[in-house]
Specification:
The complex is a heterodimer of chains A (about 650) and B (about 300). Chain A has about 650 residues and is mainly alpha-helical. Chain A is built from 23 helices and five strands. In chain A, the strands form two sheets. A two-stranded antiparallel ribbon of chain A has the order 1-2. Chain A has a two-stranded antiparallel sheet with strand order 4-5. The longest helix of chain A is centred in the middle third of the chain and has 36 residues. The radius of gyration of chain A is 26 Å and the shape is globular. Helices cover about 65% and strands about 0% of the residues of chain B. Chain B contains twelve helices and one strand; from the N terminus they run H-H-H-E-H-H-H-H-H-H-H-H-H. Chain B is mainly alpha-helical and about 300 residues long. The chains are: A mainly alpha (about 650), B mainly alpha (about 300). At the A-B interface, helix 14, helix 15, helix 16, helix 20 and strand 3 of A face strand 1, helix 4, helix 5, helix 6 and helix 10 of B. Strand 3 of chain A pairs parallel with strand 1 of chain B.
């Protein structure tokens, strides 16, 4: 039985790889390539989902190892945490593939599209294997395949300079992160002498602290924790929209998976680990949403919003880790369950938002929020699903974002029972979660309000039309899933706890408490929806036989309104960004009229990310100046280069034989 | 049975109390003021009318009144008015309810941005900002109550085994909570000194300008939602100030509504005594309430182990 499940899982991975290779053979027939790719990838992912569901019923975990080149053993283990993280991978990726039918619409780019499809499927397979790797070498191999294939995906539009810059920045951070992760693995290996993860519990506690912090920084650069998130706001606008959806919805969660897996494997109970994770989570959450408010490029805004949600996920994980250290089962269980459920929820609604943003950008040709407007009437499906995604990401009932935030709150309130630093941190966590939620709804009312509502601000926005069926179907599916998870939360809360069931380190929370919380949440959201429908019916009754006329918006006495007098995104967010001044620096360039006659003036304002300016000024520029002083070594004279090689060999021979 | 009677009386009587505020303000200004039942007359007038919709707006414009009214009704269903058991209650319902109110705010703001008017955008930006700060204060109050009581439900706060009241343990801290909650009430319900509900200058409005384009029954639904929200915050203050005996049942109702009337009169007096604050001082006002409650929470570390 187990072998059958394992074989079907490997089969689905093989189908996905085949789906990536087929476009390279058929790329001359563009539409056929797209159809073949979508169907094969979808079959692979759906069979992967089916495998997960049949494996979950079998409680024992699956193991598989493969000797590679007769030197190293690659071993994989699937347990409950792996299966939980496989869910977003196999759910979001086929939907992104279907969306790519509409997004890649230029047949002259068909070879480039085929290569993009190949790397997409390599990404899917490597992410699936990351969740299962149980051996340091295996993990390193699939992690690197994941980073490199996503680099090639980001570089789809390589002719544009910003795309190239974004790609290099992403590769730099990915490799720096990998460096830190492998350093952490190296420390474990030096203590245990084995490449297997399960031996890691035996290392001394001080080493565990160092290993965790190195790995936290390494995985954090992939996940997008402040201040290592700098690549996110550049890479996501540069990549094609469905790639941004996969990266933001699924790939950055692999960083979270790494942090969680390493924490469970190390089995450390030092409270400082949880406190660090919680503090980084709070900072990422608050600053992420703050920078999202300050941005006017819709995809950059969504990228910073991903940083914010990673912050919330880390807060859940941090509260769980503090719960483990304080030996509070409920705090630990609900913290981690909130973290896991938010991983799933975020993958759903963030992918939805990125797909919607991609549709808007494709149809209007601009990604600047202040040049759009009135798209709800011109792109109704995109608008309605984007609205559903925005309400979900703001954590409002009756959608799914609220359910996971409730679990994190529940865990954080448990931390108030103590009288030490845990109480202060829990208090800060609850208040920051409340402020993050408020700022997130501020940010997304800005996006929905300025982009979809009001009047179109430019001609491009006025001419926009709805995309085809392939654009609408994935977005509708994702929006409906948001609502379903919100209205039927009990099953999903149990699913999140089920993801923790194989972790020997955590003791299980009482199943009855989980069911009670689930049914209470269901009562809350369904009651809200019910009252909403009741008020809707009352309104319909009140409007029977009433006169309804149309007119223009009340201009408060202003008789010549234009579309340009509407509020812009910058003005909407100005007061709150100004409030957080030391963290969000607003730079204004203002060239005013100096002479008598009118001439060209410029006004520009932008919100700077202090992490980016900090690393730029503190690390990158000094390093460039220092290394610039060594420029004289690179003179271009080949004979002297050969001379370098001879001198180096001579020195090495001298050192070895003396 | 008592619960249904209590909630029914609350839902029907909520429009009565804002008339008290108007009467108090008029009295302190030396005028006679509108009749006490003015809000009922307003609602009936609005129900009889039709609506004018702007050509710019979409379906989101209709969602604003619906969600805010639904939120106002829902929060009263969970609240133990006069210490009578509410219709619904579960552990953790306070979190659900404050997020439901936040959902109402989301859709009100979206409806305001839907009209494409700069004034409504301005009001929306201000409302979103001050609302976020007020949320922080409210959650600080929830933290304090959890420290005192271990409860996360309105009925557990006031009808549980150790109800929160001025006469209970750590009751002195509730004085700070009363001041903070009153400040939050003024912020969330757009009262002076945060927002003047009687102003006619759109540039200075926060809440009023967001609902400027609504008319007819839509406006009536918005007004009903705001009445219920103000009723909820006043009831919250009432139950903290004045301890009720849960076993007395419906007998508590006259005392409860009497204290509610006193609180509304206090709102009226505040509105007459203070001028509204300059916009950039409002965050300081709201954050003062936050600091008061955080200070109270830290004080609990001293005498609640």
């Amino acid at each position: 039985m187990r072998l059958l499940v394992l074989n079907s899982f490997l089969l689905s991975l093989a189908i996905i790889v085949a789906g990536g290779v087929i476009p390279l053979l058929t790329y001359r027939r563009f539409v056929l390539t797209k159809c073949l790719y979508i169907s094969v990838t979808a079959i692979g992912c759906i069979s992967g989902l089916y495998t997960i569901s049949s494996a979950v019923s079998d409680p024992a975990s699956l193991d598989w190892s493969w000797p590679w080149l007769h030197l190293f053993t690659l071993s994989f283990t699937f347990d409950s945490l792996s299966f939980f993280f496989l869910l977003p991978i196999f759910l979001i990726c086929p939907l992104a593939a279907i969306y790519s039918f509409f997004y890649f619409d230029r047949a002259e780019n068909s070879f480039r599209t085929a290569i993009s499809y190949l790397f997409t499927n390599l990404l899917i397979v490597s992410m699936a294997l990351v969740t299962a790797a149980s051996n340091m070498l295996t993990f390193a191999l699939v992690w690197e395949v994941m980073s490199i294939s996503s680099y090639f995906l980001v570089m789809y539009d390589y002719e544009k300079k910003p795309t190239r810059t974004a790609g290099y920045l992403y590769l730099l951070f990915a490799q720096a992160g990998a460096l830190l992760i492998f350093a952490a693995f190296g420390i474990i290996f030096s203590h245990t002498g084995s490449l297997d993860f399960s031996q890691a519990t035996a290392i001394p506690d001080s080493a565990k602290l160092l290993v965790f912090f190195l790995a936290f920084l390494g995985f954090g650069s992939k996940a997008g924790i402040f201040p290592l998130h700098i690549w996110l706001p550049h890479a996501h606008p540069a990549a094609p929209s469905h790639i941004s959806a996969i990266m933001s919805g699924v790939m950055i969660k692999m960083g979270i998976y790494g942090i969680l897996r390493l924490y469970f494997v190390l089995g450390a109970t030092d409270i400082r680990i949880g406190q660090t994770v919680l503090i980084f989570g709070m900072i990422s959450g608050l600053l992420g949403v703050l920078y999202a408010l300050g941005k006017t490029n819709i995809k950059r805004l969504l990228a910073y919003s991903s940083v914010e949600n990673i912050g919330i996920i880390l807060m859940g994980a941090g509260i769980g880790m503090i719960g483990v250290a304080q030996d509070n089962i409920i705090m630990a269980g609900f913290g981690f369950a909130g973290c896991l459920l938010h991983v799933l929820n975020h993958s759903i609604f963030k992918s939805l938002l990125f797909l919607g943003a991609g549709a808007v950008i494709k149809k209007t040709g601009t990604s600047q929020v202040d040049q759009l407007g009135g798209l709800m009437k011109r792109m109704p499906f995109a608008g309605k699903t984007f609205l559903a995604g925005s309400v979900s990401i703001s954590g409002l009932p009756p959608f799914n974002g609220f359910i996971s935030e409730f679990l994190v709150y529940f865990a954080a309130f448990q931390g108030l029972k103590y009288t030490n630093s845990t109480m202060l941190l829990s208090m800060m966590a609850i208040i920051s979660l409340a402020v993050i939620g408020g700022l997130a709804s501020f940010c997304f009312t800005k996006v929905v309000g300025i982009v979809f509502l009001g009047e179109p601000r430019t001609e491009m926005a006025r001419q926009a039309t709805e995309g085809g069926m392939f654009m609408v179907m994935p977005m509708v599916f994702l929006a409906v899933s948001c609502l379903v998870i919100g209205i039927f939360p009990a099953g999903f809360v149990e699913l999140a706890f089920g993801g923790l069931s194989d972790i020997a380190f955590l003791r299980q929370v009482d199943a009855e408490l989980i069911q009670t919380i689930g049914s209470n949440l269901a009562l809350g959201t369904r009651l809200f929806l019910g009252i909403f429908f009741f008020v809707f019916l009352c309104r319909k009754l009140l409007y029977r036989r009433k006169e309804i006329t149309a007119g223009s918006t009340w201009g408060c006495g202003f008789t010549r309104p234009t579309t340009r007098i509407q509020y812009t995104g910058t003005s909407y967010a100005r007061s709150v960004v100004d409030f957080f001044r030391p963290f969000a620096i607003i730079r204004e360039t203002d060239i005013r009229l100096k002479k008598i006659f009118p001439e060209r003036t410029v006004f520009e304002n932008r919100v700077d990310d202090i992490a980016e300016t900090g690393i730029n000024r503190g690390l990158a520029l000094p390093l460039l100046i220092l290394l610039g002083k060594l420029r004289w070594i690179q003179h271009g004279n080949v004979q002297l280069y050969i001379g370098y090689i001879i001198v180096a060999i001579l020195i090495l021979l001298l050192v070895l034989f003396i | 049975m008592e619960s249904f009677l209590s909630i029914g009386i609350a839902l029907l009587s909520a429009p009565f109390f804002p008339g008290i505020i108007l009467k108090v303000k008029a009295f302190l200004a030396g005028k006679k003021g509108p009749p006490l039942l003015i809000k009922y007359y307003t609602l009936i007038k609005l129900f009889r009318k039709g609506s004018v919709y702007s050509t710019t707006t979409s379906f989101v414009f209709i969602f604003g009144p619906l969600v805010s009214c639904a939120g106002g009704v829902m929060i009263l269903l969970f609240f133990p008015l006069a210490a009578i058991a509410p219709v619904f209650s579960f552990h953790g319902d306070v979190l659900v309810l404050f997020y439901v109110l936040a959902a109402g705010r989301f859709f009100t703001i979206a409806a305001a941005l839907d009209t494409g008017s700069p004034f409504q955008g301005m009001g929306a930006a201000r409302e979103a900002f001050f609302g976020t700060l007020a949320e922080a204060s409210i959650f600080a109050i929830l933290i304090l109550f959890y420290r005192m009581n271990g409860a996360l439900s309105f009925s557990d706060y006031f009808i549980g085994t150790t109800p929160i009241s001025l006469t209970g343990p750590a009751g002195a801290l509730l004085l700070l909570v009363i001041v903070a909650l009153f400040m939050v009430l003024l912020t969330e319900n757009s009262r002076v000194p945060v927002d003047d509900p009687a102003t006619h200058l759109e540039l200075t409005m926060i809440h009023e300008v967001m609902i400027l384009d609504h008319s007819g029954p839509d406006l009536a639904l918005i007004e009903i939602g705001s009445f219920y929200k103000l009723f909820f915050y006043s009831a919250f203050l009432t139950l903290i100030i004045c301890p009720f005996n849960p076993s007395a049942g419906l007998v508590n109702l006259p005392i409860f509504y009497g204290v509610m009337a006193l609180i509304y009169m206090a709102i009226g007096v505040t509105e007459s005594m203070m001028a509204r604050l300059r916009m950039n001082l409002v965050p300081k006002f709201v954050l003062t309430s936050n600091i008061l409650v955080v200070f109270a929470v830290i004080l609990t570390m001293g005498f609640i182990k």
